[in-house]
Amino acid sequence: MSHIRRRSGRTSGSVSVYFIAATASLFLLTSLLIDFARIAAFRKQAELSVKSGVRSAMSSFDPIIYAKYGLFIRGGEAANELFRTTLEGNSSGEDNEAFSFLDTRWGQAEVTESRPLAGHDVFRRQVLEEMKYKAPIDLAIEVASRFKGLSGTMKEATRTVDLLEQMRKAYDRREKAFDDAYDRQRAHGEKVAQKAESAISSAGGVVGGYDDYVAKREEDKSRRQALERWEAERDARLNAGEDSEEIDKDKPEGPRYGAEIAAYESRAASTARELGKAADEARAESDKFVSKAREALIKATQSNDEMLAIVERSRRDTGATSGGSEDALESEHRQTMEELRRSAEDLILPPAFFSEYDAEIDRQYSQGLTLAGELGSLSSLIASAPGSTGMGTALSSGQARASDCLSEFSDDYGAGGRIIAQRKEMLESRRSYEAERKQAEARAESEWRSAGSFLGSFSAGAGSDEEKVSFERTSVLYTENREWNRSEEEARRTQRSEASSQGRDEAMTSVNSLLDVLEGAVEGVRDQLYFSEYALGRMTHFPPSSAKELLSGGEISLSVHGQEVEYILYGLNHPSGNIAAAYGEIFAFRLAVRTMEGLIECRSAGHPLLVLAAALVYGITQSMADMGALLGTGKIQLSKYLKVDTYYTDYLRLFLLLHGGGSNPTARAIAVMEHGSGLDFRGAYTYASGEGTASVRLWFFPGLLKALARVGDLGGSIKGNRYEATYTADHSYI
Q1: 138-147, 553-562, 677-686: lowest mean pLDDT where?
Q2: Cβ count within 10 A of residue 483
Q3: CB 285 within 8 A of CB 322
């Protein structure tokens, strides 16, 4: 029995040891689980605290910038103080009287601010956020409805003006080439005929005096022979003793016509040289004429071919772009434009015209060479006349042939020549509208200069010294922002064109681009649309009433902050320069619209180039009237055919849509806001990143946890008896 009791005691002791070991293990595991749970809770709380802290720091924004521009930047209390206050407010420290499951202690806590509003991407995103609901509604109501229906007609008008203007330039080149060829014909005919006539005229005396010259020369020859015989006989008679006086009484008379004969022979030689020279010059003139005339005719042919290509290209373009829905008025206008384009085809000459003209030039060249040949033949005959006999008939025949050839040439190509007159009549018959067209074009140029003078008067406002300094400062801020964003300087827009037709073409191209952008904005082109609406909603502009007062010489403020939209658009460092640029662009828009109307109103003029010139005169004069209406009443009727009122801000909106969304207008918008607020947007931050380091005291086995951390990731580190971790969180206004 006693043996059995001893075994039972040993067993009980063993169980106790095992129980203690199991209990210790369970305690250890439980302790680790408790600390792991506390670490997990601590990590979650710390992470949420950092996020809350960053949001609290960003909740302090600049109220002035928001109220004036609707944009958010960090402002108010210091970000680091707000961040730490929020962190500590979300944690229970060790000093709390109540039991604290997590005795969180915050160490380093810092907020890093970035993404300043001076950055173009940041600025644009804030603008988009501000305007994403409002802008499409504003545009659809205030602009799209006003300009509805204009786009299709303007495209047709632009296509028509482009065709007619190309045809006009090619037509003028062709007609200039024709004039050059005609001038070559006329000059060749007159010059050759004049020289030939002079030479043949001088030959008349030589030919007509030939028989008399031969008779006198023969008579002098006989006299010379008689004298020579007498002289030979005189010596013999003297030797025979005859009296010398008696002998001399029988002396015959010597040659009598030496001077006349010498003069004739000299005149004949001179005339032969003159005729030879005239022949050489006639050949040279004819060769030069045919080369230059054909060169001019080739240029005319090329211009005519160019006109044909222009028409064919227009036909293809019209076919490719026709169709689509349109109202009755637009359909009528399209038909008018198509008729005008078809009428331009009448300006093209058929190939037969050029082949006939080339043959005419060739005939004139051949006749010139023939005349030169006759002059040369006559020159040779006359050169052979001195000392000859029996050439009277040949000389008369040669002179007759040369005279007949000259007469035929002069009748055709000389002064008042038949063929020259016919060619001139043929050229002028196709130019019955030329005088009227030239008058219209001259008037257009005069009206264009007047318009330029009027628009230039907007730039007369010099501004006060203070206003000049304000512009200088804004310009400096613009340059600094542009360079800070590393954007390139924009190309300066060209000055107003010297020629009215070029100004019209540029205006019509610009308006079509504007209308395309407007349609695109309605369909969802985002950035330019929002920037346009933001600028008009938040920035100032220079109204027509102020512009009218400026023109009248009144005292009106020209501060940059009274014309912010205009400065954003054009960026001119001049108190009234941007105003002038805005009204100049409005004039260009009106010129395009009124030119479209002019094509319709002036179509009865008949000749397509006259219609083009008359439409330009109509466009300029009506556009000037529109500018007067804008300054006087503040509005302009969109078109004679679209009776909708448009306002100054409508045009600013269009211009902003066209070229207001790039880097340079953005830089100018920021510069205006910096100047107005006195803030440097490079330090106006819209993004914050908060980083905080927190720790929690471990309750049980920090050493064991530290050992476990070597083989696993606890998400932090063990320092002494505390677990420490670092958390970051980001927040921005967009």
Answers
A1: 138-147
A2: 11
A3: no
686, 689, 693: which is closest to 723 by C-alpha?
Answer: 693
236-271 residue pLDDT tens: 777 777 777 777 777 778 888 989 999 999 999 999
For residue 286, give every residue at least 6 positions away whose Cβ sits within 8 Å of its Cβ, in sequence order, or none.
Answer: 188, 192, 365, 368, 369, 372
- Separation CA 612–CA 600 (nearest Å): 10
pLDDT band at 714 (very low <50, low <70, confident <90, very high): low
pLDDT of residue 370: 96
The percent of residues above 90 in pLDDT, for the chain, comes to 52
How far apart CA 529 and CA 140 sit, in angstroms, is: 11
pLDDT at residue 99 tops 50:
no
| Residue 688 φ/ψ region, left for φ over 0, alpha for ψ in the -120 to 50 degree band, beta for the rest | beta
**What six digits make up the tokens of 146?**
């006003």
As a whole number of angstroms, the distance between CA 42 and CA 47 comes to 8
Residue 635 has pLDDT above 70, yes or no: yes
Give Cβ neighbours of residue 160 (< 8 Å, ≥ 6 apart).
337, 340, 341, 599
Give residue for tokens 């792991």.
36
The count of other CB atoms within 10 Å of the CB of residue 282 is 27
Axis-axis angle for helices 577-601, 150-208 (nearest 10): 80
**pLDDT tens readout for residues 430-481:** 888 888 999 999 999 999 999 999 999 998 888 888 999 999 999 999 999 9
Residue 235: is it exposed, middle or buried by C-beta count within 10 angstroms (0-12/13-18/19+)? Answer: exposed
**Helix, strand, or coil (residue 724):** strand
Helix (H) or strand (E) holding 27: helix 2-58
Q: How many CA atoms lie within 13 A of 308 on its CB side?
A: 10
- Picking from 289, 314, 293, the residue whose alpha carbon sits closest to that of residue 170 is 314
Decide: 341 and 314 in contact? Cβ < 8 Å.
yes
DSSP 110: E
CB 568 within 8 A of CB 539: yes
Tokens of 206: 């030589």
Site of tokens 């109204």: 543
Q: Is 731 helix (H, G, I), strand (E, B) or coil?
A: strand
- Cα angle: 174, vertex 177, 178; to 5 degrees: 90
Q: Residue 406 contacts by C-beta under 8 Å, 6 or more apart in sequence? A: 193, 196, 197, 200, 371, 374
Q: Is the pLDDT of residue 2 over 60?
A: no
Amino acid at 725: A
Q: List the structure tokens of 270.
A: 């001179």
Burial 384-418 (b: 16+ CB within 10 A, else e): ebbebeebbebbeebbeebbebbeebbebbbeebe
Query: Cβ atoms within 10 A of the Cβ of 320, count?
Result: 8
Q: Can you tell me the distance from the alpha carbon of 626 to that of 418, in angstroms, rounded to the nearest whole number? A: 54
Query: H or E element: which one contains 721?
Result: none
> What would the two tokens of residue 79 be?
């970000």
Candidates 49, 57, 121; CA nearest to 734 is 121
Strand partners, 731: 688
Q: Which helix (H) or strand (E) is 713 found in, with range? A: none
Q: How confident is the model at residue 702 (pLDDT cuts 50, 70, 90)?
A: low
Given the structure tokens 């914050």, which residue do they identify?
688
645: tokens are 């009122």
pTM, full prediction: 0.80
As to burial, measured by CB atoms within 10 angstroms (0-12 exposed, 13-18 middle, 19+ buried), residue 651 is buried
The 8-class DSSP code of residue 342 comes to: H
Share of the chain above pLDDT 70, in %: 88
Residue 619's Cβ-side half-sphere holds a number of Cα atoms within 13 Å equal to 34
